[in-house]
Give the backbone structure.
Amino acid sequence: MAIIKKFKAVKKNPNHLLGIQDLSFPEVSKILDEAKTFIKLNKSSSKKIDLLRGKTQINLFFEPSTRTQSSFELAGKRLGADVMSMNIVNSAIKKGETLIDTAMTLNAMHPDIIVIRHQDSGAPNLLSQKVNCAVINAGDGRREHPTQALLDALTIINRKGTVQGLKIAICGDILHSRVARSNIYLMNMMGAEINIVAPKTLLPHSIEKLGVKVFTDMKKGLDNCDIVMMLRLQNERMQGSFLPSAREYYEYFGLTPDKLKMAKKDALIMHPGPMNRGVEIDTNLADDINRSAIREQVELGVAVRMACLKIYCQSI
Ligand code: NCD
């Protein structure tokens, strides 16, 4: 796979997938190569293999999730693991149990892998220090969402052949987005040029230090881009007012056919979902099968998660 390694990542947590920042370039290549082998299986009529037979996977989602949780659940089941998705609403967490106590309780049941999504940045790292099994981060606060970035990379490779040398615009609520952070680390490592497009109020302090160009004018930020990655306004993480109105936001930062004209003719539209149609993206563009790779991202997400479960389940 033709990927350029720009930064030498320090290997911190070899047995857990906590963030793209912890991964080395060969580890990223290994996950993506492994994921490619599952794409065909996921399209076949018999989708189940017994690679993880006898292994137990626990999904621990403290935040709402449709695609990530179902994707991890299907991925585990297709590999033959026993998958248990904890229902947080009916769990002791609602009775005040701490994350550590929950971790210790689950650990006593000898799982082989725990997939966790949590509203606090760093929660998966803490969990990984308390359990004997592998931990996969399915999104923590505003920090990282490594499997989303990996599936985004696989989608780009599938459509464009490579990430290296592409110009990628990541647009929208960068401040609150773990997807943006993981993608900046990964796409940089893979040799892309990254434009960040957002209103000033939704830009993290010193973001340019991560090796990106910053734009507050969307048309300039999209100029000659190969990939246009849109993000949702993460209202649940906003305290106070960051924007005058959703209507005004759409006017200046929503992806419309007019603004898309600035990007390359064959530029690919991406979005991690869930989408707010008419807020960050024009509804027809989101559904345009010639331009939008949004459904493919969901499809390839299962393959990427199968690869991660296989690799990390076997590394412990
Ligand atoms: C993202 C997340 O949860 O960070 N969604 C996802 O995993 N598909 C982005 C979002 O919620 O907007």
The radius of gyration is 19 Å.
